[in-house]
Amino acid sequence: MSTADPIEQLWSFVAAAGNADAVVFDTETTGVGDDARIIEIGALLISDDTPIYEYDQLIQPPTRLPAGITELTGITESDLADQPDAEFVIPQFLTAIRPLLLIGHNVSFDIRMLNVEGGLLGCREVSNDSLDTMTMSRRMFPNAPSCSLQEVMRLLDINEIEEHRAISDARQTWQCFQQLKHMNHPVVLSDDEAEQSRRRHAATKRRRTNAYMRSSYLSNRDTTPVNAKPDGMVIDQMVCGVTISGDTAHQDVLSRYGYDAWLWVTVSHGIIESGKNTGHPTLCVALDGVEIGRIPALQEERHRGQVPPEGAVMVAHIPNSKADRESGIYRLRLQMPAENDRED
């Protein structure tokens, strides 16, 4: 995000747009529903197939920023607190881009959001010609299970990660556009390539959904652990709640804290000693010096490498579910970082 004065930056963009013939742009918003509002605009002005100016501006919305959007984008309420509102940015932005070709990834969404904001301010709708790299991608990779920006970059061998920030996404969209428009014919993925793409997309979607739901759930809760913190390296990322096998055998320990308790635990490496996954690596979870259980083999694979060889101090949670309360059972879920990317 630029540290330039918003007024100076906006007028510089308007002036530079007079020398452009296209704009690649992206918006970040408070959601995707009818009540969504723009919180960031990123734009690359293009002249004769060359980027000539970048514009990136946060926008303070009139509504509360959902926790899930902060999880997705990294944008916080404090980031937006001193930023201009839509009334300052949108009218001038729309005036600047009206003569230009609009380029974006799923560009119809971003045009709709501009028109939502503009409509609230009495601005004429944007109806420019546009090019959508998502549509181009579907044409060039007809059997690709997903044409998200991240997956299109993978298909085009662009080794970057989608950050879900407006200017970064706009730059990456431009890279994709440059490659897609020079493809001479569609590429049909092999069965293996299509399956890998499907799995990558499913894993990304699952991580995003879990992170959004989890951050929304945690946004109004005090997650401070109530027990003494053990010594050791701390990993306190709480993106995935992982089940612990064996926790029901330690009701005496868990019941001391009760439902909805957040707790420090120690996590160490071990081996599953019985059952169908005997010999498989696992992570052992101990609470107040008592080993409560181990995470399942599948979860160990999904989070492999996240805990150092010497182990770590992490956070766990006793869920407050209706089913557990009715049965009088206390369970423990280990809070872990997001699952690793899986290419297979």
Structure commentary:
It comes from Bifidobacterium thermophilum RBL67. InterPro entries: DnaQ, Ribonucl_H, RNaseH-like_sf, RNaseH_sf. Pfam families: RNase_T. The chain has two domains: 6-181, Nucleotidyltransferase, domain 5, CATH 3.30.420.10; 234-336. Helices cover 36% and strands 21% of the residues. The protein is α+β, with helices and mostly antiparallel strands and 344 residues long. The strands form two sheets. Strands 6, 7, 8, 9, 10, 11 and 12 form a seven-stranded mixed beta sheet that branches. Strands 3-2-1-4-5 form a five-stranded mixed beta sheet, with helices on both faces. The protein is built from twelve helices and twelve strands. Strand 9 and strand 10 (290-294) form a beta hairpin. It is globular, with a radius of gyration of 24 Å.
